[in-house]
Amino acid sequence: MFEDYLKAGMQQAHYELLSGDEGFYAEIIGITGVWANADTLEMCREELRSAFEEWILLNIRLGDELPVLAGVSLEIPKLELVA
Q1: Mind listing the pLDDT tens digit for each residue in 58-82?
Q2: What is the phi/psi pair of residue 16, to 5°?
Q3: Least crowded by CB within 10 Å, which of 37, 39, 43, 47?
Q4: Which of 21, 27, 69, 18 lies closest to 47 in space, CA to CA?
């Protein structure tokens, strides 16, 4: 479930080769604040994946709804605290 959501987001990634020797920039379209830049494309992908994982976990922790990405949703059941 988590991995499917992660893959769906990464499939929406947009990569750019920066001018000169500046490396690569990437972002996931539709996910504000998830971006990465690195010297190589592979390093940029890894950084983007890590940033996206952290974004997912933060939103789960905050109890925010996650958007549906490429038809894939990640719904976390609400836990009830028992006193």
Answers
A1: 998 888 889 999 899 987 777 676 7
A2: -130, 140
A3: 39
A4: 27
